[in-house]
Design a protein that fits this description.
The protein is an alpha/beta fold. Helix content is 41%, strand content 13%. It has a 6-stranded parallel β-sheet, with helices on both faces. It comes from Fundicoccus ignavus.
């Protein structure tokens, strides 16, 4: 199964969902597709979806997925990588009204540069990347520790 997740923030990600529909119209993928579509206005025609998932449901889809196609949110990307999943990051871009800036491009770019995942910014390349990722084994495991709590704790201590 391919799990597509676009996050739950107030921004649409119609561009990704439309391209997935287009791909499924053209190509018989070797895996079924399920998407969490959040606030998107576009409703997929060629695959199953839910707007929002509970944390347990989200993890269930992550665990079952052979490939995860995700927006460029840090939590979604790192969560998938820590489960040793193949990941294609499709960052939300400000020029399409998908976010207020292009920080997702920066996050996914760093992880892509380190060869943990593949970043797709041009939707014309998504189908090929999906087929390549499904055909190949994951080669680099993500095992970096998370320092989020330490960073927050340090910030609080410095600012109290």
């Amino acid at each position: 199964m391919i799990f597509v997740c676009v996050g739950s923030r107030e921004y649409q990600f119609d561009r990704l969902l439309k391209e997935m529909d287009n791909i499924l119209e053209r190509t018989k993928l070797p895996e079924s597709v399920f998407a969490q579509i959040g606030q998107s206005t576009y409703l997929p025609q060629n695959f199953e979806f839910e707007r929002f998932l509970s944390q347990d449901e989200f993890e269930k889809y992550q665990n079952e997925a052979k490939l995860i196609i995700s927006h460029g949110g840090t939590g979604a990307l790192v969560g998938a990588l820590k489960k040793n999943k193949k990941v294609i990051a499709v960052p939300r871009l400000a020029k399409f009204g998908e976010h207020i800036d292009d920080h997702q491009l920066q996050v996914s770019g760093v992880l892509s540069k380190e060869k943990y995942l593949v970043t797709v910014t041009d939707m014309d390349t998504l189908e090929n990347q999906i087929l390549l990722m499904l055909a190949n084994e994951t080669t680099k495991k993500y095992n970096k520790p998370s320092y989020v709590f330490e960073i927050i704790d340090g910030f609080i201590r410095e600012n109290i």
